[in-house]
């Protein structure tokens, strides 16, 4: 298939999922706006319409809470309540979230998702800097992004080492990964009659989380809601420091520093008070990326696994304990340019080794250990390959000079996107699609990969200078 045809098909998916202000992941299964989906979708949309990409992010950030959190779902009030669960009447954001500053004009969830947004905003700006400046795009999103990062770095610093903790598997985005099995085992599932799973109306049960796991998700979310979405010492039964979530926070801190540099430059030669503050804030963010990377390595790197692992903060012991499950979350820190010597090389060996099989038995990076006892090539995040995590691993491979491996993964992702009908996720070995078809970020990231032509290699630039 030609690049032109692939581009047209991916663009058709994004047009079909566009609501006028944002893009749904899937018209049937996910009929609202999702937080990290919109960030990845904006990254792809910038190649079609930088204006639409700006709108995508602006719409999401308009639903930000007063405490800085960006909710993981922004609900479309034109969609029937029974089209998706948990629905707005479960989250009760406008009442239960009032003390945390939930917006009154729109219904949202009360939990968050990985912070890809500053990175997406910077890439969208770079796609058309003239349009961005004309519409004051960076100036409009900057204070919201700064508040979002402040929330994660302060309210979610449950472990005390600077890393952000997730309070629910949905917050990390890899919903039912086996990495959560041990932390979730302490959670009593909600009664089966207390909720109805709308996801099973659109997906095969063997592709989706089990009823028991779903009941635990509902219990955790309901308890957080009943605490009025309060963070702090009252964190619930599930609190995990996750490597991918924190790696994306670090990458977005770097991007937010670049946004502040750009805004300071736009201020011209005069030195208004805001310009000096922006330059100082950018400097502090760069320093913070270094300290956060050090904390990530100190707390989550496991040399025996040659992989970053999740830390269960609720396990016995003063610092909790590492969860010894191998998930793709542990490979995502490859996107960070300042890993210690040897760590990136070890991650590449792990990705290509027997547990993830890239370049061997696996065409794409699986979401979970191919040799793990819980591996299932069809069931959601328990083995299938996802396009966003593979895109991130690919960016990391490029950053660390693994261009041949990155090229092979890029070709495999584009082929899988087309042959699966832009599926939500695929079997990592055969690329057989599962979940929703015409999935938003699959199409968007396929568009971005069409522009991944090895530019950093050709121009002799470090990959991070091209990407972020």
UniProtKB/TrEMBL annotation:
- Pfam families linked to this entry: MGH1-like_GH (PF22422)
Superkingdom of the source species: Bacteria
List the InterPro entries hit by this protein, alphabetically: 6-hairpin_glycosidase_sf, 6hp_glycosidase-like_sf, Glycoside_hydrolase_63, MGH1-like_GH
Q: Does the keyword Hydrolase apply?
A: yes
Q: Which residues form the Mannosylglycerate hydrolase MGH1-like glycoside hydrolase domain?
A: 30-442
Keywords associated with the record: Glycosidase, Hydrolase
Q: Where is this region: Disordered?
A: 268-287
- Composition bias of kind Basic and acidic residues appears in 277-287
Which protein family is named in the record? Belongs to the glycosyl hydrolase 63 family.
The protein's name in its UniProt record: Mannosylglycerate hydrolase MGH1-like glycoside hydrolase domain-containing protein
């Amino acid at each position: 298939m030609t690049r032109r045809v692939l581009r047209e098909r991916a663009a058709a998916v994004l047009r079909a999922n566009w609501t006028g202000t944002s893009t749904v992941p899937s018209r049937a299964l996910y009929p609202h706006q999702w937080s990290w989906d919109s960030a990845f979708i904006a990254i792809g949309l910038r190649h079609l319409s930088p204006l639409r990409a700006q709108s995508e992010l602006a719409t999401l950030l308009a639903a930000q809470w007063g405490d800085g959190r960006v909710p993981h779902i922004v609900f479309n009030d034109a969609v029937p309540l029974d089209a998706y669960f948990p629905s707005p009447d479960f989250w009760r954001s406008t009442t239960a979230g009032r003390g945390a500053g939930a917006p009154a004009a729109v219904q949202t969830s009360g939990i968050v998702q990985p912070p890809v947004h500053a990175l997406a905003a910077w890439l969208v700006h770079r796609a058309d800097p003239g349009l961005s400046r004309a519409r004051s795009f960076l100036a409009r999103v900057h204070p919201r992004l700064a508040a979002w990062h402040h929330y994660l770095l302060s309210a979610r610093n449950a472990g005390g080492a600077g890393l952000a903790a997730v309070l629910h598997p949905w917050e990390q985005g890899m919903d039912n990964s086996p990495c959560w099995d041990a932390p979730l085992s302490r959670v009593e599932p909600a009664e089966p009659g207390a909720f109805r799973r709308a996801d099973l109306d659109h997906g095969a049960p063997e592709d989706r989380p089990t009823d028991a796991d779903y009941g635990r998700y509902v219990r955790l979310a309901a308890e957080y809601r009943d605490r009025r979405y309060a963070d702090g010492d009252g964190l619930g039964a599930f609190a995990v420091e996750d490597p991918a979530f924190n790696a994306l926070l670090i990458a977005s801190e770097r991007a937010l520093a670049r946004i502040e540099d750009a805004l300071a430059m736009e201020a011209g030669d005069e030195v208004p008070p805001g310009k000096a503050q922006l330059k100082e804030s950018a400097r502090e963010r760069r320093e913070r990326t270094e300290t956060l990377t050090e904390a990530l390595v100190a707390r989550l790197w496991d040399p025996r696994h040659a992989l970053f692992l999740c830390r269960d903060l609720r396990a016995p012991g003063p610092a909790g304990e590492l969860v010894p499950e191998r998930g793709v979350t542990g490979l995502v820190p490859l996107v960070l340019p300042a890993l210690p010597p040897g760590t990136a090389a070890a991650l590449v060996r792990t990705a290509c080794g027997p547990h993830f099989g890239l370049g061997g038995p696996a065409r794409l990076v699986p979401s979970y250990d191919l040799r793990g006892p819980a591996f299932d090539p069809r069931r959601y995040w328990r083995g299938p390959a996802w396009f966003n995590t593979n895109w991130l691993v690919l960016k990391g491979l490029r950053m660390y000079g693994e261009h041949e491996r990155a090229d092979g993964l890029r070709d495999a992702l584009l082929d899988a996107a087309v042959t699966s009908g832009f599926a939500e996720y695929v079997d990592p070995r055969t690329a057989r699609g599962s979940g929703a078809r015409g999935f938003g970020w699959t199409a968007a990231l396929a568009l971005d990969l069409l522009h991944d032509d090895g530019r950093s290699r050709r121009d002799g630039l470090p990959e991070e200078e091209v990407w972020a």
